[in-house]
Specification:
single chain, alpha+beta, 4-stranded mixed sheet, 4 helices, 4 strands
């Protein structure tokens, strides 16, 4: 998954520029255009709490949008993160190190708990 984040697609489509101001319109543009949907859909994250996650670079920003794959009754509530592209590699690296540490701790705790 971390490799997927490091190699997200780059788009200049103006419909994708401000997902934080109108996430529904941005998601509609992503879903309706295969040239945008397919490269932006981060498939490795689909099992992440039943969310569909799109990620892409636009201009100087890195953008990640998550939405429930099977939303409860009512409207979907997407979560949007927009950050400077220059900060994105540091965030991905920190997340990767955290994940590695959690996995290592689980292995160690599992080993310690075994009789």
């Amino acid at each position: 998954m971390m490799q997927t984040l490091q190699s997200m697609a780059s788009f200049e489509d103006p419909r994708l520029a401000r997902p934080d101001s109108d996430p529904a319109t941005t998601l509609s543009a992503l879903r309706s255009d295969a040239a945008l949907n397919d490269p932006s859909l981060l498939g490795a994250t689909e099992s992440l709490d039943q969310y569909l996650v799109h990620g892409y670079f636009h201009g100087t920003n890195a953008i990640v949008i998550g939405e429930p794959a099977e939303p409860p009754t009512g409207t979907r509530a997407p979560h949007v993160a927009v950050m400077p592209q220059r900060d994105f590699p540091d965030i991905v690296t920190a997340a990767a190190h955290f994940w590695e540490r959690v996995q290592r701790d689980e292995l160690l705790n599992g080993w310690d708990a075994t009789p």
